[in-house]
Amino acid sequence: MTVSEYDKCVRQYSDNLYRFILKSLRNDEQAKDIVQESFLRLWENREAVIEGKEKSYLFTIAYRLIVDHVRLEKRYTGDETLLKNRHSPAEREYNNAREMLEHYLNELPPMQKSLILLRDYEGYSYREMAEMTHLTEAQVKVYIFRARVALKKNIGDINNIL
Length: 162
Description:
Elements: H1 3-25, H2 28-44, H3 54-84, H4 97-107, H5 110-121, H6 126-133, H7 137-155
Protein name: RNA polymerase sigma factor
Domain RNA polymerase sigma factor 70 region 4 type: 99-151
Pfam family, one: Sigma70_r2
């Protein structure tokens, strides 16, 4: 990979990568850090990256960095914060549909949340998501199905959030 090819990757994928990370972490500074780290790793491993697979490589690296970040955060926050984030259905009174949807997305397991964001927010195909996460296409479809079932169960009727 040449410098010009790398620059092209930065221009082409940085915004999508940033949005994906931001949707997962909901922290602007951490998202920017992970974008930088992802592109740094792309540059460091530029000889090993197959031509045309830069996008998959970047999103795979970003996904792994997100998982590492979430694991590290959970290690230091303890179980108390996890219990505080669990609310009964009566306590789930939100005026903003987007805020409510993000709340339910955050309750999903990290893999399911990432796949929902990649599929429904970023528009990736099942094959692309399988490459990024090192899962089979069937596993990707199962995780997305389970995530959607969980969201439907939590949200219920669409009129509940509108």
